[in-house]
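In response to the reviewer comment on reproducibility (Comment 2.3), we provide here a single inverse folding case reported in full, input and output, so that an independent group could reproduce the run without further information from us. The structure tokens appear first.
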């Protein structure tokens, strides 16, 4: 059984920084792309950043230059370093991994349970 667990959320003042972690555990053969999403109250979930298995990254325009996604394949963990935080970054942040749990299975998406990030003005 594969699990994704996010951590690192919390309350921070505008201009501050937080680093989120997403740790995958269980039966894991290969982790392909990993994404971070966020969902603010009353809003749709939006993709924030993506990192491929090869390390290529892509960001939403709203976070470019402020957020950095990375991964440690040896630890099956992805990170989201968030800097220059703004009140509008307040949301629940989720990680999503495109993952194979065995060599004979197709990859599928797994989601974490989310971690709250609150940025005060």
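Designed residues, in position order:
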């Amino acid at each position: 059984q594969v699990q994704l667990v996010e951590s690192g959320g919390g309350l921070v003042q505008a201009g501050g920084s937080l680093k989120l972690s997403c740790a995958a555990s269980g039966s894991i053969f290969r982790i392909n792309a990993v994404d971070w999403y966020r969902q603010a109250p009353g809003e749709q979930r939006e993709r924030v950043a993506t990192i491929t298995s090869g390390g290529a990254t892509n960001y939403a325009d709203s976070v470019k230059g402020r957020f950095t996604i990375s991964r440690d394949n040896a630890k099956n963990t992805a990170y989201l370093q968030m800097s220059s935080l703004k009140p509008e970054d307040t949301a629940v942040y989720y990680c999503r991994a495109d993952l194979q749990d065995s060599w004979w299975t197709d990859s599928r998406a797994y989601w974490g349970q989310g971690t709250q990030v609150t940025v005060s003005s």
